[in-house]
GGDEF domain-containing protein (Colwellia marinimaniae), 279 residues
Amino acid sequence: AKDNGGGQYHVYHPEMFQRVAHRVMLEGEVRQALAKQQFSLSLQPQICAKTKRLYGFEALLRWQHPERGMISPEDFIPILENSQHMIELGYWIIRRCFELAVAIKKYGLTNSRIAINLSAGQFIDSNLPHFLTELLLEFSLRAQDFELELTEQTLVKDMDHTIAMMQSLKRIGFSFAIDDFGTGYSSLAYLKKMPVDVIKIDKSFIFGMLENHSDFQIITSTIAMVKNLGLIVVAEGVETKAQLRSLTENDCDIIQGYYFSKPIPEAELFAVLDKHTTA
Ligand code: C2E
Ligand code: CA
Ligand code: CA
Ligand code: CA
């Protein structure tokens, strides 16, 4: 920004223009990418800490761009947020998760669930319950086959609307996980007000948990609190055996992270699962 005297700033500085241009470009590309099938999902296993059994998978979006290679969802989802394109892409993601849930059941994993990440824009869309209900019928699946992940940012955006949406999806049978727990602002307030089932402790707390005393304290007291509320607690970003052991000792329910498995590209899922069960 340029100071043009008197403390006045130009509104249109170059960085902002670039950001808008980038966004417009991305929005155009998303539509093409959907048509050209450049999107796919990777599934990351979630494992029960005590029994080491499979609890479910988190579906993570991947964009294989013809020129730019693999683009991280962190580099385009926040930019698309609140656009019609994100809602469209979101519908594609949800439908793909249903297709994968059918394939996973056919493979024999009848009790595992798929966690679907929902962006704030998707959650404001009043057509969402209808869309999900129709898919349950189309694919003969149960709402219990899925878990819907919301971030703290989504929850604080419009509390009343969010609670109403959660309640109507809850009536259909969907469960909710709070993602990136501990990184937002009012974590405790919405635990009281919202029909939440699962808390996912953010990986930023897990990475240094055995070296950093306060991260360790935050984790263990979060686990204790979540369990006292009768909810399920997931640790994400678990990379080492030592982290796994400590989390298990401290009563964490579910483990997700590179220690057990990186996200598995959907095309490789069954080959990887075969290897595990025959190993
Ligand atoms: P997230 O929902 O917090 O997902 C967890 C991220 O942590 C994933 O990154 C996953 O690959 C990564 N991760 C899992 N275990 C480990 C570990 O042990 N070590 C490390 N270093 N990382 C681990 P990814 O796939 O790059 O996704 C980044 C973010 O993009 C997600 O964070 C989520 O916010 C967003 N995202 C991904 N897919 C979707 C989607 O389908 N819809 C929406 N709305 N957002 C999505
Ligand atoms: Ca997530
Ligand atoms: Ca997360
Ligand atoms: Ca995250």
